[in-house]
Amino acid sequence: MNGFNITELVFELRMPYAKFGIGALYEIGYDFSKQKLKKVLIVTDDYISKKTDYVERAVSSFKQNNIVADVWDGVEPEPSDTSIQEGIEFAKKGEYDGFVAIGGGSSIDTAKLIDLCTTYPAELSDYFAPPIGKGLPVPGPIKFLVAVPTTSGTGSETTGTAVVTFVTKKSKFGVTHEYLIPKMAILDPLLTISMPPKLTASTGVDALMHAIEAYLAKPYNTRERPQSPLSRPAYQGSMPITDFLAEKAILLIGEHLPRAYANGLNIEARANMHLAAFIAGVAFGNAGVHLAHALALPLSTVAMEKGVKLPHGVAAGVFGPGMLKVLEPFYPEKCSIIANYLSGGAISCAHEALSEFIKTLGLPSGLHELGITENDIDALVDAALMNKRLLSISPIIPERDVLKKIVIESLRY
Ligand SMILES: [Fe+2]
Q1: Architecture of domain 23-187
Q2: Which residue in 204, 222, 323, 371 has the most C-beta neighbors within 10 A?
Q3: Is the separation of the CB atoms in 196 and 189 below 8 Å?
Q4: DSSP H helical ranges for 70-196
Q5: What letter would DSSP give residue 160?
Q6: Looking at residue 4, what is its pLDDT?
């Protein structure tokens, strides 16, 4: 701008309208009737539709409000482009004027892309950056989308990001735009009590990593100022509001995730985790995630090649202690707060507090437990270095040596 390197002066906080509380799902028909909508598609997975009554609860609420609700339950875990395409074809026939996602991040991400590709018809891949597609910008607001998370972790209900596994590329790619942020999030903790302990742990650690990475992201006012508000990135770097939210999320997760893991029926712990995951989602949806998440995406690919389908939270969490060990000298105050909140004051070192916390949740204590060896380091680092979108808000310059050090520190802890 004007030939001068002027830094950013403005930050934005983007988030959906939210409704939180036990039984909140029963109000979904009212929430759609306020928008004068008449026909909606519920996007969910086979487990939620057949093994729980969550869809029935939503459908009965829609009926009471004279809204027609159809169900498509073809969502895949870590969804592939082919599964999403099936959902798009289903939705094209129904001419829906709104969408509901009931499920984890996979259902919410799938619903965002079904909504996008039926509101603005194009090939799904066209909205992804080259080499996957044409990198088409999202043309405008998508139809009314309500996210009803049944896990406490991904934060997908708060963000404009959708991640897809492209089958032919055997890799995950994300698309991000503020128009993809759901218009509303319904946060009903009752929907999370059916999560088994392993899923509770992996999704909870994902939320924790969102909060930690958002908290440690490069400050927004150290970025270069955008040419126009339109080109302000989705991930803006840390800012006073996201710092506040991230701290609160780390505190809540430190206290309540071990309790929810130990006893899934502890509704107080479940409610606090559901709130924490949403708060962490708002923090990272605006500040961004960086080093651990940039490594998590290629780790999932490498694991897939070894025949292991790795939960996203495990992939991000396994890099957490290594990342903190590298960042601690640069951010001693923030890292001291992280250590304090995760250990109840018992451990002063952030990477030790996080590795102890992860071990108490029965998650892998290093990449070696996932079958990753020294031979995989370069492939992980090379792939992570390509993720410029995430690394642009890394708190330290994300050179090859930095990423390599994090991976080496993450082999065992
Ligand atoms: Fe994540």
Answers
A1: 3-Layer(aba) Sandwich (3.40)
A2: 323
A3: no
A4: 81-94, 105-119
A5: S
A6: 58
Taking the domains of the chain in order of start, what are their residue ranges? Answer: 23-187, 197-410
Answer whether residue 2 shows pLDDT above 50.
no
Per-residue model confidence as pLDDT tens digits over 211-234? 999 999 999 999 999 999 988 998
**Ligand 1 geometric centre to CA of 163 (Å):** 10
Of 346, 347, 345, 342, which is closest to residue 320 (Cα–Cα)? 342
Domain 197-410: CATH superfamily is Dehydroquinate synthase-like - alpha domain (1.20.1090.10)
CA 15 to the chain's CA centroid: 13
DSSP-derived secondary structure letter, 41? E
Tokens 């139809």, located at residue: 143
**Ligand 1 centroid to residue 394 C-alpha, Å:** 15
In our burial notation (b when 16+ CB lie closer than 10 A, e otherwise), range 126-142 reads ebbeeebbeeeebeeeb
Q: Find the 313 Cα to ligand 1 centroid distance in Å.
A: 6
Coil, strand or helix at 140: coil
What's the chain's Rg over C-alpha atoms?
Answer: 20
Tell how far the Cα of 158 is from the centroid of ligand 1, in angstroms: 12
Instruction: Please give the angle made by the CA atoms of 93, 95 and 96, to the nearest 5 degrees.
Output: 120
Rounded to whole angstroms, how far apart are CA atoms 311 and 320? 15
